[in-house]
Each structure stands twice: as structure tokens, then as C-alpha cells.
Amino acid sequence: MLDIARVRADFPILSRQVNGKPLVYLDSGASAQKPQVVIDTITRAYSEDYSNVHRGLHTLSSISTENYEAVRGKIASFLGAASEDSIVMNSGTTEGINTVAYGWAMPRFEPGDEIVLSIMEHHANIVPWHFLRERQGAVLKWVDIAADGSLDPQAVIDAIGPKTKLIAITHMSNVLGTVVDVKTICQAARERGVAVLIDGSQAAVHMTVDVEDIGCDFYAVTGHKLYGPSGSGGIYIRPERMAEMRPFMGGGDMIREVRRDGIDYNSPPMKFEAGTPGIVQQIGLGAALDWMTALGMDNIAAHEADLRDYASQSLAGLNWVSVQGTAPGKGAMFSFTLEGNGHPHDISTVLDKRGIAVRAGQHCAGPLMDHLGVAATTRASFAVYNTRDEVDALVDALHLCHELFA
After folding, report:
1. Fewer CB atoms < 10 Å away: N or C end of the chain?
2. 355 Rama sector, left if φ>0, alpha if ψ -120 to 50, beta otherwise
3. How far is CA 320 from CA 161, 301, 370, in A?
């Protein structure tokens, strides 16, 4: 069991006040706060060790390269990948998905070829496939969710047709908190020769991920949700799929030799990492993964499950609050609307005056909002550093909102 007081002490920002109130940070689904060890690692990387990587023989370049490349193995271990060579490091999930879209899908999609998506995908896992629809005639096939926000894996499997080449699916909805049975989907897809890309942005921070056990072809994560810096992340690519890919970007590091009449590419994964990378960002992500691993993913999941259950019970007592998504086993994330005239933006502003940070809007999930029949929601997303007292603070503030907007 985690000592949450000690966990919270790792985050200097949690000791500050906002609008004269103690900060209650419930927007980790957008971006998590950073523990002191990450901040210190970033500071040290810039103040003591900084240099470009891969390209120098001097001491600082060697240190930076060693620290940077160590993160590849940390990401591989964190995701349960068999080899660090299956990890392409990048700026986050958006770049990872686009790498697959440009490097794997575009060379092999023909007009009429299909991509299966769930209705609750983040725009980062929709827009690149619309590019294929616009430019190459790909067809997007949408799978709806149940009334409680759950996604039946069989519905995804049933959407596979003779022209389906890719399933692009979230592991955990960034709006509903729904956890998808991606393993069942991947098993069926593999039997049918269909590739599966998983958006792991939300899931990887809340639960143990084992890509080998899941059986996916691609699994993308983003560092700023993993208590690491923005501009960091990586994507797992199954070796067979990596061999099928062409480079997405061209530049330094991804080549062995450049001549007037041609080029020779570097070996994967370097083949897909062009230019000077986010050196310090990735080193900071490595520190964040070490910090999470030391806490234990099972311990993190247990604490967040307690918060989820407590928040679910507390919000259920407010009959003027409508929570979107109540699927069993969901993450500690609650998108909701209030009866009356309170727009989610107004609700967020009132909560902010009480020191409570939440997200308001469509959460980069336009198709899901249309499906739910709402223009926007307010979202409270919990992390390992949150407490039951902060759930109580949210509920108290919502009572105020009800009084103001009823």
C-alpha cells in the first residue's frame, strides 16, 4: 500500500495555492504533474551533462548519449517489450501514430481499404486516418459503445472485413475512462492478418502494460502523462511491422550514408528517428519511469481504483450530475454535465476559484461528444497523488455550482 503523503511530497507544485486555496489538481488526464526527481534530472542534464547525442566523441556527448539511450530500454521494460530495438523514441503519441500512418499505412493502403476505429478515439488517433481517407481513399469504419460507455471487443472484431488492414483503438478512453479489452481484439485481428495500433496514452500511466502479452503491432505512449516532460514519449513497433515500414521523416541519425546519387538508411529503430531528438525530455521521462516503477504499477492501480470507487459513490449521490461512462473497471476519470444552465466552461471556472483544476470542453473527442449528444463535458481525472479529501473538495464545489446554475 502506498503512503500517499510521501507520494505527494514528491510533487512540489502540490504545495502551492491557487486563488487562495490549496491546489486540487484533477487534470492529470491532460498532463500529469512532475515529481522532484524528474525536475532534478532535467536540471542536471542541462546544467552538468548537456550535449548533442550520437554525434560526438567528447565526454559530454558520451554522457548525454548514454543517458538518452538508456531510456529506450526503460520504455521497453515498462511496456513489456522483448527488445529495446522495438522502441522508437519520439515526442509522444501523436508523433507515434503519425509515424505508423505515414511509414506503414500509406505505402500499402489502396482505395477502399479499411481502418476500424471506436467512436471514443482521441483526435490524435482519428486525424491521421482521415489523411488516408482524403488522400488514398481509405474507409473509416466506426464501432459504437454501449450505454454505459463500455466497448464490446466482439463488436470491433465483427467490424473486420476482407478489406480491413488496420484497427486503431484506444486502451483507455480519455473521456470515459473505459478500459478496452485490447488483448482479445489483437488475438482475433492477428488470426485475420489485420494489424492493430493501440493508443496507450491514458492506460500506460494507470495499469501494467505488456505488449507481448497483448499481442499488438503498435503501442504508443506519451511522456507528459507518465509524470515526465512534454515532448517525450515512444512507440512500440512489432519487429515484423518495423521491417515493413519506410521512414516518416528524413534527416540526421536515420541514415548511414548520404551520397549525391542515393542514401543508405540506418537500422531500426534509428531509421525512424530523424534529427536532434528531445534529449533532455527523454532523459526526464526515464526518471519518471524509474519513479513509477519504484512505486509499483500494482500499487498505483490499487490506489486509483480506491479513488475511482469513492468518487463514483460520491458523484452518484448528486442526482443533478450526469456522469458519462460507468463501465465496470473504468479508470479514475469522470466526465460529467450538470442540470441547469451551467456550461462546462462555467463550471470549470467556478471550480478554479476554489483551487480545483479540471478540464472542460470536448477533450479532443468530437465524434464521441456527438455520439453522447452533448456539446462538452467537465472532466475530473485522478492520478496517484490524489486523495479522498480531494474528491470531497470536488463534490463540495459542485454543490456550489448547482446553487449557481440550477
Report:
1. N
2. left
3. 43, 29, 21
Residue 243 CA to residue 104 CA, distance in Å, equals 9
Distance of alpha carbon 77 from alpha carbon 85, whole angstroms? 12
Round to whole Å and give the CA distance between 71 and 84.
Answer: 9
Helix (H, G, I), strand (E, B) or coil at 239: helix
Q: Which residues are catalytic?
A: 364
218 inside domain: yes
Q: What is the pLDDT of residues 231-280, one digit of tens each?
A: 999 999 999 999 999 999 999 999 999 999 999 999 999 999 999 999 99
| Cell triple for 314 | 460520491
In this structure, are 8 and 116 located in the same domain? Answer: no
Give me 352's grid cell. Answer: 478554479
Claim to verify: residue 205 and residue 301 sit in the same structural domain = no
Rounded distance, CA 290 to CA 5, Å? 19
Provide the number of structural domains found in the chain.
Answer: 2
CATH of the domain at 11: 3.90.1150.10
Task: Kindly report the three-state secondary structure assignment for every residue of 218-232.
Answer: EEEEEHHHCCCCCCC
Q: Are 84 and 108 in contact (CB under 8 A)?
A: no
Cα 132 from chain centre: 22
Residue corresponding to grid cell 482524403: 134
Location of C-alpha cell 524509474: 290
| Segment 97-122, tens digit of pLDDT | 999 999 999 999 999 999 999 999 99
Residues 254 and 355 grouped into a single domain = no
Q: Is the pTM of this model over 0.90?
A: yes
Do 90 and 103 fall into the same domain? yes
